[in-house]
Every structure is written in structure tokens, then in C-alpha cells.
Amino acid sequence: MSELNTPGTAVPLEQSPIAPKPPGRIRQALDSDIVYSYTRSPVTIIASIIALLLILMAVFAPLIAPYNPFNPASLNLMDGFTPPNSTSFSGNYFALGTDHQGRDVLSTIMYGLRVSLFVGALATLFAMAIGISLGLAAGYNGGTLDAVIMRIADIQLSFPAILIALLIFGIARGLIPPSQQEGAAVWVLIVAIGLSNWAQFARTVRGATMVERQKDYVSAARIMGVHPIVILVRHVLPNVMGPVLVIATIGLALAIIEEATLSFLGVGVPPTQPSLGTLIRIGQQFLFSGEWWILLFPAITLILLALSVNLLGDWLRDALNPKLR
Amino acid sequence: MTSALTRIGAALLASSILVSAASAETVRWARASDALTLDPHSQNQGVTHNFAHHIYETLVDRDVEGNLQPRLATEWAVSEEDPTVWVFTLRQGVTFHDGAEFTAEDVVFSLDRARSEKSNMRQLHVDVESVTAVDDHTVEVKMAGPSPLYPNNLTNTFIMDKTWSEANDVVEVQDYAAGEDNYAVRNTNGTGPYVLTSREVDVRSVLTLNENHWAEEAPAVTEIIYLPIAENATRIAALLSGEVDIVQDVPVQDVERLSSTDGIKVETGPENRVIYFGYKFGEEPLASSNITDRNPFNDPLVREAMHLAIDRDAIQRVVMRGQSIPTGVANPPFVAGWTEELNAYSAPDLERARELLAEAGYPDGFTVTLDTPNNRYVNDEAISQAVVGMLGQIGIQVTLASRPVAQHSPLVTSNQTDFYLLGWGVPTFDSAYVFNDLIHTKDGSYGAYNGGLYSNPELDEMIQSLGTEVDTAVRDATVAEIWATVQEDRVLLPIHNQVLAYAMRDDITLAVHPENQPMLTTVTFGE
């Protein structure tokens, strides 16, 4: 859930090392350009509130959801297809109705959000970890290593991410014995999406690293005999994190959509533990028969989530780019 | 992977075929899945046979009422000299699509191929000892013993051209489970009413009328465009928007809406197919369970508990929206050997089920993975999901693994699943077909779909005796006895018999076929 942290993490970037005595970190943070641009952008404020609400809904789903749809034992099949805002066969009330298995749509959305966010966030972190390491190595070393890594990245960028994810998913499925596949499905999904998105990170980090490498502080550290890995992690990395955070935020939105797409295609998480994409796949079966709520509510939730995270990413990109200020 | 690509392909296709307006004789026929292969003896599977019946032909055939009728054989009878020999008189003047003449040699070759080692049709011909050509248009099939019902086993065994097969190196059957490929998987040379003119697997196949077909009356449909569209909503949308003319696999939730749509009609009728769950027998612990020292399914108490946990009426009412016939036996009512008593099922009794589980030593239940197809039977995945919930209520925590049928079937035939959903159609209309494939010990010839590896030597003996028993009364008694043991042992967990719904343009008439293998040659146009 990196978009939550973004304003906070970004603050140190704004601290100039030669600034006069700061009036306290909090004051300083509130005075920063980031906060200023945030308070001036109503769209961003709304987006962050929606994203925050959705994330809270996901995190606290076990506490606030009226039912637990992931516990098959608690379902009553006869409650299936209850319309929104009505009482079911067994006398339970369902605000957003139930699906074809008698699952409460509202609770399923909350739990589905958890799966979507979990997969999205971990996949982005995974992509980030690979992308940053390879990007730093390529940018700092240059030469053959750089050429090899960047060509691989170029090749990968020329394919749509979803195809790469499908390919990785398919290979992983082939490697795992059938009896273990469902337990591993979420992790396979994370790896597949992560591996399909590392190239953007690697490219950006490599570019920034090449710029930083020329700078005096890196030369100084090198002359002092600091180990290259320490130089990269302690000195170069903090200075290339700005653009990485922007990509990570937009990447999170993309990863969520990618997960939804894979689940929609039926290759994602099992239908008994649905993510938003799985819910949409299930719901669209009932488009023609009049049970619109099974599709509509998860779809709206997915749109809100992806849109708000995307808007936050856009804002962050502008806020961190001095040329646009 | 394949299914995802299929869907993308189908979506692209659906948008592109809008352009070509259909002439009156072209029928665009949409189904949920494609034929698995075109090698006629490689897969004993309904969708595959249904498609193949338009290209290849069998010696005998079944009409919509389920009666045998002549096709490539005009007459068949038990030999007067030897009661273990069937004599088939073949139709004259029949040619294959490539012009070669159809003779007894081709029948001998095809029957031998169908009972060869890699053939999936093998169990239907286990009692055959040898096949010989008497003359160009007479074939004798020598059985191990008297086999009065053998012609019933021939309704899906297609006849190939011997010369063509040898020239194209397809004498051996494609080993589907091993992922093998051969020329016959994509190319055909049958005697059937249609010729395959183009084929893109999982996307689109085109069949055009065989002008030289032997039938006196040419069918009204001169061209068939066969479109597998995996996604239910996409398939129905294609019909609503006029992109396809017939949808064979209509989701139950759409029957009502389609019936009330102008210009579209829905035909419904019971199918000769039962939907059931199978589970792994034997001492060996299950691969997907948290019980690692023994196999819970091997305990009759556990199986009994599972039966008591299933609410078949709820599945019928909600998941199937009334479009199914709940049953307590894995045998459709069309089939000889079916009885009211077998069909009866007990009402769910969760308390008793929990007691039984505790008694069996699983007071906290256990975990297991259920493998289900998601594009083969009506609402297959939703049925499995409902059963996951019902078993969860007695403490059996089931993880659902859902796959397209092309990936699901091999799991069952190669015993890689602990717990699975399958549907079984009975083309012979006789219980022996169910026993041979689902109940008999898996030994290469019998038990091809006995994915649970149930094995009962006494039953095996009785099952084998059915093939050669001539006295109908004795045979019926044996069938009843086998069913009694199967029910007592809870070998399978039956749910319901499928009800079929075909939706089509309202000027088309196509009757529901009890085996869900409608021939488009029977299509008529006009109100």
C-alpha cells in the first residue's frame, strides 16, 4: 500500500542538506511543496480519500464485513440471487444482494479487495525489488552487464505485460503438481505479475543511476574505498527513489488491473476465494438474466480503486517533477 | 493459458464475423468448447464425437428417441452358425471425401484401430476377439462370447479410410493424454455428410456439404460454421446480436430471457448424462489433504457423511434454476438398469454427517482439493462451488481447482486428482457402459475414467460377464446386483441428470438430442 506512504517517504527528498535550521520535521513537512500541491488539488484529495477508504475496508474486512464469504461453511445456497437491499430465503438481510452461491456481495467485495490489493502490492514490491537491483547494477557497472540487462528489458517491454504474465502463469502451472496448484495460485500470480513489470523500474533506475554515478559524492565514496554495494544502497538508491515511487504508484494500479484481468480470464485465484476480477468474471455470467448487482458492484469497486490510485500516481509524478511546478 | 487465449480469440472473432451475412443454408453453430481432437478414436468425449459425426460416420447410429438406426451398416445380425459372431452388411456405393471407395477393409481397419492400445474407445470393444472382412461389403466381428448388445457400442466408433490412414501415418491412435499429435488430429477423410474445409482449433471450423454423400435427401444446411465460444455471456450475446444461429450450450440462467426474446426460441429436453463427483479410493494418503497417514475417502463412513451433506434439491433450485433432475444414482433414466429405488436420494442430514465424520476419526474434518472443469457441463464450476460450501458445513475444507475441460480430463484419466467432478453420458443406453469405464478396476482396457481407482475384483468379474451374457433375465439380475454394491459402497457421489437447452433463431428447428449430439443434417428451416 505504498501510495499511503508516498507523501511521508517523499518528505526527506525535499530536505535540502544545506537548508537553514529546520523548524521541526512536522512543520517542515507541512510547509513542503508536496503538501502544498496536495492541498491545492481537490481531485487528489478525493482520490486519496477513496483509496484510503477502500484500503481500510480491505484491511478491516474481517471486522466490518457482515458475513465471511471465504468460509464456505457459512453459506446457504438457498440465499443465492437475493436482490440488493432485501431479505433472503433464510431471513438474512443483504445490502448489495447475493451472488449465485448465496454469498453477500458487499462482504465478498471487501474480501475480494483484500486479495486484489495484496496481490497488487506484493507484485509491485516484487517488480520493484528486481527492477531496482538490476537497474542499479546496470547503471553503475555499465558495459556488457548493462547491455544484457537492458536488452532483456527492451524485449520484455515490447510484449504486453498481460501476455508475459499469462506465459509465466502457464509455465508455473506446468511446474507445480496439480494437487498443490490452488494453494500456490496467489503466489504464482504475484510472481507472474511482478516479473511482467520489472522492466519499467529497471529502466528508470538505470538512467538515474548513470546520472548519479558521475556526481562528486559517488566519486568521493569510491575513493574512500567504500564497497560498491554500500555506495549503491546507501548513497545512490535514496537519490533515485523519487521516480521509482511514481512508477510504483502507477504500477500498483496496473498490477491490480492485471490481476483482475488474469482472474477474469479464469487463470487467477480460485473461485472460492475471489478477487475483484474473479467476482467480475462470475457476475458477467448473469448479465443477461437480470442479476445485475453481481457484476455491477465489484466492477464499480475495481474502477474506483484503479482510478484513485492512478490519480494519486499522476499527482505524485507532477509534484515530484520540479519542471512542472 | 489456452482457455484465456481462446476467449480473446473468440472475442476478436465475434467482432469480425459480423461482416459476413449468412445465406439461408449456412448455419453458425456455437458451443462452449471445441472438439478435443479430430482423431476419431483418441477421445471418447461428447463434444468431440458430436463434431466428428458430421465428418465421419459410424456403422450404426441413434435417432433422437434413442433407437438404433442403420448408417454405414445397412443390416446387422448374429451369425446363424456361431452365436458369438456379429455379421454387418455394409452400405454400397459409399465413398470417402477423397474419392476412395468405402469397403469392408476400412471397417476392419477402423475397428482394429478403435480397440488398439492407445484408443480411448477401447472399452466399447473389449469383448471383440477379431474382425474380418468376408467380402467387400460384409464384415464379421468375432466376440469372446455371445454379445447381444454389441451394436449399441458402435454408435461413436467412426470408420476411417485404411489407405488414407496408412499414407498419412495415422495407423496408431493419437495418445491424447501424453500430448501427442498426428496428421488425423487436424485433417479428416470421412464418409460423412460434411467435409472439413478449414479449422482453427478453439476458434472456428468450417464444414461444407459433401455432394457425394449416399443419403437420398440432401440436408437443408449446406455449410456449417462451428464456433467454440467459451464465455457464456459472449456466446449468448452472439446469438442475441445475430452473429450465430444456434447455441448448443445455453447457460441455465439465460433460458428464461432467451425464450422471451423475439426471434429466438429455446428447445429443452433431458439429456442422457449424469453429473457426479468421484473420489480416490485406496490406502495411499491423498496428495492434497492435511491427513498424511491415511486416505479419508477410503473410509465408508466418510463417503456416507459426504452423501448426507449434499443438498441436491438446493443445487437444482438455485444453481440449475430448475433445469436438472436430481438423482441418487450415477445412471441416467434412459439407461437399462435404472430404477426408481436407485434414483432415490436421502435428504441432507448435517448432524448425522458430522457424527459419521467424528466416528471415522475426523472430528475436525480434513482438507482436500476438488478438481472441476469450468466449460464442459452446465454450470459445472458453480455446482462444485456449491458442494464446497456443503462439505464445509460438516468440516471438510475443500479447495476448489477449476480448469478448462482440456486440462481437467487428463487429471481424471491419469489418476492425478483426489476429488473431481465429471459427467457421464451413456451412448449404449446400457449400464454396462457405466460399469466398464467408471466402476471396473483400471487395467488398461476397462476403467478408463475410474479416476478414483475403485477396485472390487468380485464386481470386475460380474461386469465382465455382462458382455457375454445372453439370458436377459440373468443379465438384468447381475446389473441390479452390481448397482446395489456400487450404491452400498458409495463408489460415486451423483448429483443430477442434465437438462439440455438449445437456443436458436426461431425459423430453425433442431430437436434436443438425448446424448447432446444433435446432427445439423436434421435442421429444418421455416416456421
Automatic annotation (TrEMBL), chain A:
Transmembrane stretches, start-end: 43-65, 115-140, 152-172, 184-205, 243-269, 290-312
Domain ABC transmembrane type-1, first and last residues per copy: 113-313
Listed InterPro entries: BP-dependent_transpt_permease, MetI-like, MetI-like_sf, OppC_N
Keyword Membrane carried by entry: yes
Positions of region (Disordered): 1-25
Principal location: membrane
PROSITE patterns from the UniProt entry: ABC_TM1 (PS50928)
Topology versus the membrane: Multi-pass membrane protein
Subcellular locations according to the entry: Cell membrane
CDD domains to which the protein is assigned, alphabetical: TM_PBP2
Keywords: Cell membrane, Membrane, Transmembrane, Transmembrane helix, Transport
GO BP terms, alphabetized: transmembrane transport
Pfam families xrefs: BPD_transp_1, OppC_N
PANTHER family, per the entry: ABC TRANSPORTER PERMEASE PROTEIN, OLIGOPEPTIDE TRANSPORT SYSTEM PERMEASE PROTEIN APPC
Family: Belongs to the binding-protein-dependent transport system permease family.
Identification of the protein by name: ABC transporter permease
Source organism of the structure: Arsenicitalea aurantiaca
UniProtKB/TrEMBL annotation, chain B:
Subcellular location: Periplasm
InterPro entries (alphabetical): Peptide/Ni-bd, SBP_5, SBP_5_dom
Signal peptide extent: 1-21
Keyword Signal attributed: yes
The Solute-binding protein family domain, residue ranges: 68-443
GO BP annotation list: peptide transport
Keywords: Signal, Transport
KW Transport (keyword) present: yes
GO MF annotations in UniProt: peptide transmembrane transporter activity
Gene Ontology cellular component annotations, sorted alphabetically: ATP-binding cassette (ABC) transporter complex; outer membrane-bounded periplasmic space
Similarity section: Belongs to the bacterial solute-binding protein 5 family.
Protein name: ABC transporter substrate-binding protein
